[in-house]
Amino acid sequence: MHPLTIPAYPKRLSLITLLFGIGVFLWLTPEDTVWLAALLGVGIALIGTAHAVFKFASGRTFRARTWFPGLIGIGAASGAGAVVATIGLMLIKTSVHNHLYPDYSLGVMAAMAQRLGSWSLAGACIGLAVALLLAMR
To answer: pLDDT digits over 50-77, tens only?
Structure first.
């Protein structure tokens, strides 16, 4: 396998972050379901991961024995981050809307927390898939 060089910080990433933030802000207003909160949580985790990778590794070259397992670890961390971000969004939306019955009950948030392991494993599998695709080029 060959070394992997992380490119320079993309200028579009800031624009993507801003547009996604506007989307999350607009999501706070209407009533919705759990799947949309989970989808937004995944988006937050992916954008946060991209910012972290480009901030700390931009311009660096990594050997295969470093970047291959690193991508698996980054995938697992992104999966766990998606769960945390989803629960955070649920808490924010529940606190903003002062209803008699909350948008997301404690049981729904606890059920999301129970998915931490499976989402981390799913993220690790996606990281492995990306690593295998990069190794093939």
So the answer is: 999 999 999 999 998 999 999 999 999 9
